[in-house]
Design goal:
Blueprint (H helix, E strand, L loop, with lengths): L9 H4 L3 H23 L9 E2 L8 E7 L3 H4 L10 E5 L8 E6 L2 E2 L3 H4 L9 H8 L2 H9 L17 H27 L8 H4 L2 H9 L1 E2 L6 H7 L13 E4 L17 E5 L12 H6 L4 H4 L5 H14 L7 E7 L1 H16 L5 E7 L14 H13 L9 H9 L1 H4 L7 E9 H8 L11 H5 L6 H17 L1 H4 L5 E9 L6 H4 L6 E2 L2 E2 H9 L6 E3 L15
The structure holds 2-acetamido-2-deoxy-beta-D-glucopyranose.
Amino acid sequence: MANQRFRPLIWCRKWSKRDQAIAAAATGFAIFIITFSVFSDSRTKPSTQQPLNPSSAPLRVPLTLLRNATHRGAFCLDGSLPAYHLQKGFGSGSSNWVLHVENAPMVDFHQICSRDNRLVDRSAVVEGGRGERQRRRRRSRRRTRHGGGGADGGEGGSGLEEEEAVVAWRRLLRLCEEKRESERREEAPELRLCEEKRESERRECEIESGGGWCDTIESCSSRKRTELGSSRYMDGQVQFSGILSQELSQNPDFFNWNKVKIRYCDGASFAGHPESEFKASPVDVFQLELFFRGQLIWETLMDELLSIGLSNARQALLSGCSAGGLATLIHCDNFRKILPKYATVKCLADAGFFLNVKDVAGHRTIETFYQDVVHLQVVTWLYSVSSYISSIFCFFPQEFIKNIKTPIFLVHPAYDFWQIKHIFVPDESDPHGSWFKCKLNIDNCNPSQMEVLHGYRHSLLKVLSEFQQNKEGGMFINSCYVHCQTWMTETWHSSNSPRINSKTIAESVGDWFFNRQVAKQIDCPYPCNPTCYNIVW
Ligand SMILES: *[C@@H]1O[C@H](CO)[C@@H](O)[C@H](O)[C@H]1NC(C)=O
């Protein structure tokens, strides 16, 4: 059943002599790090996310379970069948395909309910429990207006916001308690944030999405009881908007293509390997019933899509956001290989370029986290290669982007709030909460905090300087405080969506895909761009 056409993470295998030497040297170090990280429990668990409303009522598309998954053993974390949503193309788009790997829904419950019932991620809580007042204000005042410097305090009301945050926090702590209580009774009614909300809020909750990998048995197990790890909890229908919209006015270049939204249920950007299930729990994998089948899911899914028309594609775009954006980069060259030679095939990663940098306290938060994800889920095919090295090479695009041969487009906010909250300024590295207000609203950042954030933008641009020379590549790096921007019509293509040099993201991506013109757009530093959607939590 192993399919020779698929070469998972192929660049990860291309070890030069020098790499191997580094790997060998690093293995020892990695063992130390791993040992250390096993005992360290205070790492960030990326997962939160952010929202914007889709404007007009978008199409809702039903869920399809992957047919051959059972006999291929391609399961979500909990053993359920993986799923996708398909909308057939029409007219001139009927032999073109756009695939979008969803980003993980906004809140991983595990992130909020830590073992000792402490608040793990205040910002997630503020998001999850924010009041109606904030919500209303956010709707009407999405767009920032910048008169002067970015450091002045905004419109006030932050005291109230904190009060609301405290109320929300208490409410969530209660939910955590109830959740544990119910687990104790083994009834386990699913307590998910979205379910807690009223219908109107629920819709908003559903569309707010974010990154997400699970790095421990515990966090993967708690994911099994959410749509992030099980199709049993996925909604029967989802909205298709932004890059998946079928409206010409909202999606000028791809509106009539075949469109597939790929549900993300493996917790490792579709890079997990079943062999690691044994490694993960020497105690009793079968009792745990955790499946690390990301790579298999990917292969089985691609086979199914090929069988229903993808194999005749003339043009195809693989895209994804956040963890899905990373999956897009990881699988891009394989996607190219399984399609006909004559087809035009390209990949678009939205907010999937996670930087390998130290956080404000000098800790390697994200590196340690990815290393744990790899160690848990991704068996390194060369057993001599450490998970430390693998995590670096397989999960940080800056390490492998130069090995990808298929043309790539990067949509990325230079002030990616997810990275700011989880990579640059994780709560653990800000024990006194001095970044709290700044992370809620970038306009609240003081001048020295802004300097730090500009520093991260600078690091991003530096890392991308080589990619910028890539003739087939494209980029749209805007200076907004936001995360995913391709799958919401408001940010993808509308009369007031973010622009650089008067182009929307959709227009830039179209220019690049159809070689209409060079599309490498880089914004000036925040707050220079008045067209930004900046998230206010
Ligand atoms: C599903 O499995 C059957 C039996 O192995 C195979 O003949 C068929 O081609 C598979 N279909 C897809 C879409 O992979």
